[in-house]
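Figure-free illustration: sequence to structure, shown twice.
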Amino acid sequence: MHMFLELFSKKLSLAALVCSFFWIALSSVMLAQTPSPNSILTRSIAFHDPQDQWETSSNEFILRESRPGSPDRSTILQIDLYHEIFNLDQNRDGNRIQYFISGDTVDILFNGSADYTAEQEKQFHLTEERALILKDYYSYLYGLPMKLRDPGTILDPKVEKVLFQDNETWRIRVTYEEEVGGDIWYFYFDPESFALVGYQFFHDEAARDGEYIVLEDLKIINGLSIPQSRSWHTNSDSTFLGKDVIE
């Protein structure tokens, strides 16, 4: 009996050792199959900007922006990072608002005129600060995923495979250095093409605030594959906030 127990114990030890090696090998394979965040980002940029043109070309977008309870807005954007040019021409509530940024120079027109009242300036945000905010906003959204290579961007090393809009995706978490921004972002990529299919942000992740954005369809503009439709929803209860469509 003693010899049998000793032999049985040795077999158990051997089995445990084999099992341990198996799980180590399986874990290694699983890790090898999970791409790094840098790899995902590189492949996604290659999908959306295969000719590396975002930083050097002048791109124009004509948008229809719809919001619940409000009339649609028509917006024309020109984004030229290389020449530091950003122009926005928007029809809003029956008025035409234009911001022109070239380097450090900002010009603003309201219904074709640079002369407007203080009340109009306040109501329609006809300020240099507003122009610069819109420049950063639109350049970021329409420059994704390329903008995730900007200085100050921090890619979390952990990559997860999760469902987004009922589809499997790779998810990467992004934060920013303090002087750049304090929000927490998640970006979702198609596991085969590595196209960016959505993203979300939180000011306070524990409070489930912020929004998520669903990207649909693709439009080729100057060789760039740009999502044609962006739908905005709250993180807390998926309330629909609006939709932007490239026309």
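We now fold a second protein in the same way, so the two outputs can be compared directly.
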Amino acid sequence: MKITKKRKEILSKIDLKKEYSISEAIASLKEAAKSRFNESIDIAMRLGVDPRQADQLVRGTVSLPHGTGKSVRVLVITKPERHDEALKAGADYVGYEDYLKKIQEGWADCDVIIASPDTMSELGKLGKILGPKGLMPNPKSGTVTQDIAKAVKEVKAGRIEFRVDKAGIVHACVGKVSFDNKQLEENIHTFINQVLKLKPATSKGQYVKTVTLTSTMGPGLKISRNEITHH
């Protein structure tokens, strides 16, 4: 990839060895984000856990105060008598057997699936398809629930799910470059705090090893350790 003059100039202002405060990192990433589209701001936290141990699998949900800036397409799987309720709450797609069949045939045009508990025996059979895509509803993440309307509204308002990957890293989108700095800061602190709360009792040593912020096309900036414990 050829580096343009503008890009060189931006990168020259960024010190990849430096540890940034969250507010400095946001300012630098915004300055570097000169793409024609509204880039996402992502966070990656490398945790001192062993994801192969069931009791060290860090996973959860967090409601970002300002959402992610992405529109989230929600499919609700529930019995026909509750379809209206799901649509009123803002679901993009609602169905039961028709959607189970579509998913089996390869349809996956949604970002989150919310299911009522009485459909899980059928939906569970599609685990092999939905699991690898991260779409399988789960009571722990609030996506298997009797309160469908509440779940739909929360997901639409910016509730995101996260789980540690095989390398011990938790990734999430925490907003867009177009957000103001304070909104991004609040989203980032909310996310970090939630991950800190989920520290497994069995995790020994340093729990959060590194935190990095990046924009879609931008470099990864390391966040200073004192930013991680204060809030």
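Summary for the second example: The chain has a mean pLDDT of 91.
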